[in-house]
Please model this.
Amino acid sequence: AQSVTQLGSHVSVSEGALVLLRCNYSSSVPPYLFWYVQYPNQGLQLLLKYTTGATLVKGINGFEAEFKKSETSFHLTKPSAHMSDAAEYFCAVSDLSGTYKYIFGTGTRLKVLA
Amino acid sequence: GAGVSQSPSNKVTEKGKDVELRCDPISGHTALYWYRQSLGQGLEFLIYFQGNSAPDKSGLPSDRFSAERTGGSVSTLTIQRTQQEDSAVYLCASGNPTGGTGTDTQYFGPGTRLTVL
Model:
């Protein structure tokens, strides 16, 4: 069965500092991986996804993630945090058993300090 | 184009009452998903509709939960005899699975916040 682990339910960074949000997955087959962001009282918005091909994926708002098969990781990074990045971030893997439902991590709430 | 819409945005009900939550997916999307987001449980899959196929109900937590999708478009999630543990945000998503793979992006609505008193 597939699963997703996000280390750190809360992460705080200073404005302008590097953002690193960790995601590890478990899958017996090549996974399809997603990062979503959720702002307060809003739905989830896709940041980026990895399906096949280039392992470094660039998304919106300056975020990127690298798929590392050997480490079963898909960590999300941004070189310089902005106050507007404060939100909750979810890593997800697509269930390949037929429904393609998402299996989500528990989320990481990012706080950006002025 | 319009995104996924959900109504109501907030619902407060008394324990034991039935509630209906509505989802309008993006036009043309064949797949529709319901998820539940609750404290301590994170985001959980509830049910999946794909075209005219039988839905995947494997995530529904009890037989008090049911869902329909009429005409391949609008979906209604019904919770009967609500319990306090049903309090959560219910999110709907739609998409178009591409070529039978899992690469499809799901587009989420803003959710319905359900509070059971």
